[in-house]
Amino acid sequence: MFCIALGGPTIHAGGSASIVLAKRRGPIAIRQHNTEVSIELLHVERTDQGVVIAGHGVRVELVEHLFAAIGGLGIGADLRIDVFGPEIPILDGSASKFSQHLRHLRLPRRPHAPRIVMPATIQTGDSTYCFTPSSKTQITARVEFDHPLIVEKQAQWDGDPDDFINRIAPARTFGFRRDAMQLRQAGRAQFIDPRVVVVLNDDGSSESAPAPDECVRHKLLDLIGDLTIAGGVPIGTIEATRPGHRATHAALSIARTRGILAYSTRGTTGTDGSSPSDGGGGGGNGAGGRYDGGSTGGSVGGSN
User: Fold this and answer.
1) Are 131 and 119 within 8 A, CB to CB?
2) Distance CA 78, CA 208 (A)
3) Which helix (H) or strand (E) holds 102?
4) Local confidence band at 265 (pLDDT 50, 70, 90 cut-offs)
5) How many Å apart are CA 107 and CA 56, to the nearest integer?
6) With helix as H, strand as E and coil as C, how does 262-274 read?
7) Class for the domain spanning 2-262
8) Nearest to 216 by CA among 184, 173, 276
9) Strand, coil or helix: 258
10) Calpha distance 282→302 (Å, rounded)
11) Any idea which residues carry the catalytic annotation?
């Protein structure tokens, strides 16, 4: 078994946590407290300032950056994630380190990605999701934040792992200082390092100013993570306007129920016969496609 250990501070729980990325035969799974559970058996429990997945004795917070890396690389099997703590460490605030280390494991791709099989537009709250069938993957995120440091309002990804690693994965999580105190009083956002989290001030400044398109690239990163958690990055086109964790999982649940998204029931391919994750998108088994609700995100202390 080939393993890579990563650790560091956690945003919400405070203190430190660590994970071990282990290459071994079998479906993607999470192991916590000596309990190993396939991610297909987990459900989304919470979606405010990050995503919590839980089930069968496992509960892990802030999983979206790690799952964005899994989906961005198209990984489909042979990965076990050992979690030591209640939360995935924030590391550099993006999916960059997760992606780089996962690529070193040379894990197999999922051979049967979900597909968008009928066109539809789903409105959930202030967020809109447009689904269009296509032979290729194309994911677009659009934002409408009114802040001078959020210059670019749209980012797109066409399913290429190299593009994900080089352009999407490095985008740091961000939030607004005006929300930080309320979050801390609610027991959230216990650790905020401005080198890791882009904190936007109401006067238009930031201690660690983002690149002009960094915030919208991070929204795209989160969207890829949410798609992966929900069952996999699909083949087809998704255009998301004002996406957020809660809205995305609600929209994907509706899309699945209405037959807009078709998820394969066939298993993943193991290391004995599949290619490593060096091709297009569509990866990730997902947390069973089940969504149990939760609050909306969009503040300091979690992927917006």
Assistant:
1) yes
2) 37
3) helix 96-105
4) low
5) 25
6) ECCCCCCCCCCCC
7) alpha beta
8) 173
9) coil
10) 25
11) 245
CB 300 within 8 A of CB 183: yes
Structure tokens at 240: 């998301």
Mean local confidence (pLDDT), 254-276: 67
Angle at 63 between CA 97 and CA 115, to 5 degrees: 95
pLDDT tens-digit map of 204-255: 999 999 999 999 999 999 999 999 999 999 999 999 999 999 999 999 999 9
Query: Over the chain, what is the mean pLDDT?
Result: 89
Q: How many degrees, rounded to 5, is the angle at CA 227 between CA 223 and CA 231?
A: 170
Sheet-wide strand order for 120-124: 120-124, 127-132, 236-241, 137-142, 154-157
Residue that is written with structure tokens 């992927």 in the block:
303
Residue 294: its pLDDT value, please?
Answer: 42
Joined together, the tokens standing for residue 92 give: 């550099």
CA distance 27 to 294: 27
Evaluated on CA atoms 239, 243, 249, 255, the torsion sign reads negative
Under 8 Å between Cβ of 66 and 283: no
- How many residues are given for the chain? 304
Contact 210, 198 (CB under 8 A): yes
Q: Is the model's pLDDT at 159 over the cut of 50? A: yes
Residues 86-129 have pLDDT tens digits of: 999 999 999 999 999 999 999 999 888 999 999 999 999 999 99
pLDDT at residue 106 in the model: 96
Mode of pairing for the β-strands spanning 16-23 and 29-32 = unpaired
Rounded Cα–Cα distance for residues 156 and 138 (Å): 7
